[in-house]
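Q: Got a minute? One more chain.
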Amino acid sequence: MIAACAHVAPREPSGAGGADAASENLGGYWDLVARLDLDHAMLAAQAGHSHDQEALAGALKRVVAGDAARAIVSLDSLARRTYTDSTVRRVAVVVLAGLLHTEHRWSELAVLPTVPGIHRDSADLAGVEAWAAAFDGVRAPHSRFRSDSVIFPIVLSPLGVPMLPVEINGKRFLFWLDTGASMTMISADVARAVGIAPRTPDSLEAVTAVGRVRVLPALIGSLHIGPLDWSDAPAMIVGGGDFSVADSAAAGRMSRAKIDGIIGWDVLRQLDVRIDHPRGTLTMRKPVHEHLAASRRNLFWIGYPIVQGQSVNGAKLNLGLDTGLQATFVTRSLASLSGGIVLGVERRRLASIAGDSIVRGDVLNEVRLRVGDADLLLRGVTVQTAVSAGFVVLDGVIGSDVGFAGVVRIDATNGVFSVKP
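A: Always. Here it is, folded:
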């Protein structure tokens, strides 16, 4: 599925299908994979003499380590072997599709292998087939850096989401910084203002946290953001009525904030972004490869950006990263590890461009986490039901509020997410 924003979903029970269902039949290996405990998953595969499972765990380790090129080769090989374990093939195809999509490799997306257990419907307007067909024959976007870094004053949306100044075909706008969006999005009004026409009159769909939204595929001839120039950039055009969100987390508020556009992960992964709330600055830099050891990388894309951290008792955590989300939340599993006190139950509005929904959950007085080299103290955190990003079980999702008291760094090149005072 092509994601517009905030597309983590409630996790289905183990009997519901897919990799979660397989864990009951295939033992601990699939539980370990779902938790991205890949070293132990490889040991479990070796103990069970499953070369397919061992190869999948190895490919996923390459994804986590930032070696997307070799991961794609391994995943493609696993997905195309008809004699490979069917569950291994399903997971391989899901991860492979996410990697190819974020790199805009449309021709390869169009020929993904058919795998038993994955329903491939050419009529699904949010499916990779429909999007690959829409961008058929489009060359890869070209990017270049005009400078090493650019500094802007921080501008926040009504929801507290950082906004970036962008220039499209010579005209300037403020776009939201949304790591949860897989592609750049622009409003229909902006598209008309800069002369961008849809590639096809037939609308497609993008998946959000609360449903689907109709969009039109397009190419941005010239996108300038900070030090980065990007040409022939794939994007989604969203109708003006759909491109707005509720401007408050309070369930009783109904006013909405209009959005000109969203800068998604496909662009953000090319930048080293630093949001310094105390100084009121947002810096975008040309990434410099730091050749970090795998143990020091904590940010990666696996169909959704994931940050790895630790609980106060040292348990490994997988947290979604969604800067388009107003408030950070945790799952019950992490809440039980945090030792926080429940202050009460609260109803909050989950804002999305496809509409809003009301979520109800406990509110903890505090949650303590360790992310990178820093200990984080989050106050007034909402607890929600278990959620997943694809096959990965999440312990929560980091929103735009997490760094208000410090400096946030998002550097996909080096696999670094950090929050420092």
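A: The two ends are 37 Å apart (CA to CA).
Q: Perfect, thanks.
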